[in-house]
Amino acid sequence: MRPYVILSAAMTLDGKIATATGSSNISGKKDLERVHELRKECDGIMVGIGTVMEDDPRLTVHKINANPEDNPVRIVVDSKCRTPIDARITNNDAKTIIACANEYKDDFLSSDKYETFKKRGVKFFFSGDERVDLVALMSYLHEEGIEKLMLEGGATLNFSMIKAGLIDEIRICVAPMVVGGANAKTFFDGEGFDTMDESVKLELVDYYPLEKDLILTYKVLNI
Ligand SMILES: NC(=O)c1ccc[n+]([C@@H]2O[C@H](COP(=O)([O-])OP(=O)(O)OC[C@H]3O[C@@H](n4cnc5c(N)ncnc54)[C@H](OP(=O)(O)O)[C@@H]3O)[C@@H](O)[C@H]2O)c1
User: Fold this and answer.
1) Long-range pairs for 220-223 at CB < 8 Å and ≥24 separation?
2) Which residues pair with 87 in a beta bridge?
3) pLDDT in tens, the chain (223 residues)
4) Could you give the residue ranges of the DSSP H alpha helices within 146-205?
5) Is 135 exposed, middle or buried (0-12, 13-18, 19+ CB in 10 A)?
6) What is d(CA 164, CA 30) in angstroms, rounded to the nearest whole number?
7) What domains can be seen in the chain, in order of their start residue?
């Protein structure tokens, strides 16, 4: 068993979710509110360590009226336990789980950083050899009571998750901007597929304009 996974992101018309320098303010005000409504509906919210390092997100519900109990459990996919000690995702606004790989387990469990995180109530889950095993992580999160999980990037984790067949739905905000840049992160990076035949197939189920943005919802077809 695993959670129902909704991938949520905002991209420019040219498919970029951040510039090469890491700037990623893409959504308009109404879209940010829409995203925070979705956070409120979900039991968990997950990002990769690249996003934590670049954006230092809180991943709480704070753009709309909400109570502390509306905050989903925050999950960081972080094989080498690199999450900084002062990362906002580990503050006590909400619960946090850091998913790491077994290769780095022993060193980390004997570190001061682990003790500090433990005192703060941060939980750890170890799987995979050198990289987090996403299938095992999904099963663990389901056991932890997470039935609806929001995936909020970034580009590398998005690709691993969709390649592993772990995404059910995609909700994307397309902003009327073009930034270009061969080194700018796209919606899905990772190693990519070699041919279009291998691509993950989607079905468009909803679309509507929101201020200047366009919101698209796709179901991922498991064929
Ligand atoms: N516009 C938006 O909606 C939006 C949303 C989120 C993020 N972003 C942007 O995305 C950028 C970050 O993306 P990113 O690609 O650099 O990083 P990322 O996808 O957030 O994190 C990738 C990292 O996750 C770790 N990881 C562990 N196990 C993994 C697995 N099985 N598969 C894939 N990754 C795994 C890897 O690091 P380890 O090997 O060290 O574990 C990997 O490098 C930032 O610039 C951020 O602003 C934009």
Assistant:
1) 220/162, 220/167, 220/168, 220/169, 220/170, 222/165
2) none
3) 999 999 999 999 999 999 999 999 999 999 999 999 999 999 999 999 999 999 999 999 999 999 999 999 999 999 999 999 999 999 999 999 999 999 999 999 999 999 999 999 999 999 999 999 999 999 999 999 999 999 999 999 999 999 999 999 999 999 999 999 999 999 999 999 999 999 999 999 999 999 999 999 999 997 6
4) 155-163
5) middle
6) 32
7) 4-220 (3.40.430.10)
- Which tokens in the block code for residue 177? 């901007």
Give the Å distance between the CA of 54 and the centre of ligand 1.
Answer: 9
CA-wise closest residue to 97 among 118, 61, 124, 133: 124
Candidate from 34, 59, 79, 134 with most ligand 1 atoms within 8 A of CB, to mutate: 79
Q: Who contacts 107 (Cβ-Cβ below 8 Å, separation ≥6)? A: none
Pocket-testing residue among 5, 51, 189, ligand 1, by greatest number of atoms within 8 A of Cβ: 51
The verdict on whether omega for the bond into residue 154 sits within 30 degrees of 0, i.e. cis, is: yes
